[in-house]
Amino acid sequence: QGQLVESGGGLVQPGGSLTLSCAASGFSKDYYAMGWFRQAPGKEREGVSCFSSNDGSTYYADSVKGRFTISRDNTKNTVYLQMNNLQPEDTAVYYCATDRGWPPCTYYKRSYYYVIEHWGQGAQVTVSS
Known about the structure:
The protein is mainly β. Helix content is 3%, strand content 47%. A hairpin with a 5-residue loop joins strand 5 and strand 6 (58-60).
């Protein structure tokens, strides 16, 4: 199986920005979807954003639309999540993930974290004044 290595978490004040990265290696071509879930204290893991390498489409949860941007660097096999105007409710551990589901990004849209088998190690994002 492949591996996902993510980085970029940290502490930021409300209104600030952070960028997460997730580098993938060892996955076959049909792992079209790559993105992030997050899990806040006392809450279930939820889908945040997803990039489909099949057609370049993207998905954003309603709570982050207009603030987060996901992108892909094909040369580095890496996806990035640019997070702007961060708010305290964005505080969570952010987990990068990839899967072979169809259509791509379905599991992120429905927060079906329990069916995803490949995860990054997690990155803590804390938004606090």
